[in-house]
Amino acid sequence: MFKDGDFLEIEYSVRDAVSKELIATTDEKLAKQSNIYQKDIQYGSAIVVLGANSIIKGLDRELRNMNVNDKKNFTFKPQDAFGDRDEDLVRVMPLSEFKSREIDPYPGMRINLDNITATVKSVNSGRVVVDANHQYAGRDINYEVRVVKHITDDREKIEALGKSYGSRPTRVEVNSGKVEMVYNSDVKKNAEYFVGKANLIASIFGNFKNVNAVEVKEEYERPEEKKEK
């Protein structure tokens, strides 16, 4: 039995319960076979923290009754999945508002409106219909899930969180309320790294009440100079 705050490593595949359409999976091979593969997604087992609102309500509830190596199949109604559809979240906006933001909308486009992600449903006659409901709101959702591991060591938890944010530290030490993280020169320090690192630090403070400080050490090497032709 698992509880709030437990870190679980899981594998899953998510489908529309009616159409059987594959929505998401941790299995890279299955993603490619189903034509939903995305090169910017990290495939392989994922980390979830129970009670942290990182997964749908129904899955959070059912995972608590599973054990390591259990593999189960669940179907969730909208209220336990991505919610019921709310027609008040469907808006009609003038095309000129998008043009003023230098956005050329098209059906299926995902946009950010006032910090809410919405989908463009149609564009015609100078009007744009956008829908801020979750893409799978109102649908019954099927989850096939396996619990791979229950992570109990704080260092492993932080490394796992780092992986999920795309900024896994080279080395982690946890001592007396302080976390020390090292990113050596092999870690690519791009924009995604800096965003991931910031999210990781926020997650550490959110999930580890005994941590009062996080120290980050970054190593850089001088880039090789281009040889003159």
Question: Which key phrases capture this entry?
Answer:
3 domains; 12 strands; five-stranded antiparallel sheet; alpha+beta; Alpha-Beta Plaits; Thrombin, subunit H; 229 residues; 21% helix; globular; Chitinase A, domain 3; 5 helices
Give the averaged pLDDT, no decimals: 93
The CA-CA distance between the termini, in Å, is 65 Å
Class of secondary structure makeup: alpha+beta
The number of strands is: 12
| H-E string | EEHEHEEHEEEEHEEHE
CATH class of the largest domain: Alpha Beta
Write the layout of secondary structure elements.
Layout: E1 7-16, E2 22-25, H1 28-33, E3 46-49, H2 57-63, E4 71-76, E5 90-94, H3 95-100, E6 110-113, E7 116-124, E8 127-131, E9 141-151, H4 154-164, E10 171-175, E11 178-183, H5 191-207, E12 213-218
Parallel strand pairs: 11-12
Antiparallel strand pairs: 1-2, 1-3, 1-9, 4-9, 5-8, 6-7, 7-8, 10-11
Can you tell me about this structure?
This protein is of the alpha+beta class and 229 residues long. The chain folds into 3 domains: 1-83 and 139-152, Chitinase A, domain 3 (Roll); 87-131, Thrombin, subunit H (Beta Barrel); 153-229, Alpha-Beta Plaits (2-Layer Sandwich), CATH 3.30.70.2210. Helix content is 21%, strand content 33%. It has 5 helices and 12 strands. The strands form 3 sheets. Strands 1, 2, 3, 4 and 9 form a 5-stranded antiparallel beta sheet that branches.
